[in-house]
Amino acid sequence: MKRLLLTSLTVLATCFSLSAQEIDTVPIPVKDMEIKLKRNPLPSRTGVITFQPVDLKPALVQAKINYWTTKATVGINANQASFSDNWKGGGVNSVAIGALLNHKAEYSKESYSYTSEIILQYGKVKNKDQLQK
Asked: Which one has a higher pLDDT value, 116 or 60?
């Protein structure tokens, strides 16, 4: 129902806007009017532009195309949780550290592409009254 109402309102609005686009057919006599153009406040120079050919020697570029794109990210995370003795919910105090290494290499030449990705993560955690893990 809403869609029908929206469609009909759009059609009506389009029809009313089309009827307002009439061409003005009232002739205006311009022969009796004296129309003078204003002088340009920014005068421009007029002159002859001459072109002379310039000899450019082609330069050879010794560029090697690399089809490999690489991206690497490194991160270190640290975390500590501390709980008071009078907290009813309980919990164990802990300290943790983690490291991560992400590396991605992409090879793309014409219709051949190859992607290699490695994600390395390592972490240690020490809880109160426990050994490191």
From this structure: 116
Burial per residue of 42-72, b for 16 or more beta-carbon CB atoms within 10 angstroms, e otherwise? eeeeeeeeeeeeeeeeeeeeeeeeeeeeeee
- Name the 3-class secondary structure at 103: strand
C-alpha–C-alpha distance, residues 70 and 68, integer Å: 7
Instruction: Give the list of residues 6+ apart from residue 113 with CB closer than 8 angstroms, or none.
Output: 106, 107
Quick check: pTM over 0.70? no
Mind listing the pLDDT tens digit for each residue in 24-49?
677 777 777 777 767 777 777 777 88
For the chain, give every domain's residue range.
65-133
* Element housing 11 (H / E): helix 2-19
Quote the CA–CA distance of 24 and 131 in Å, as a whole number. 93
Q: Reduce the DSSP state of residue 46 to 3 states and report it.
A: coil
Sign of CA dihedral 4, 5, 7, 12: positive
Q: How confident is the model at residue 108 (pLDDT cuts 50, 70, 90)?
A: very high
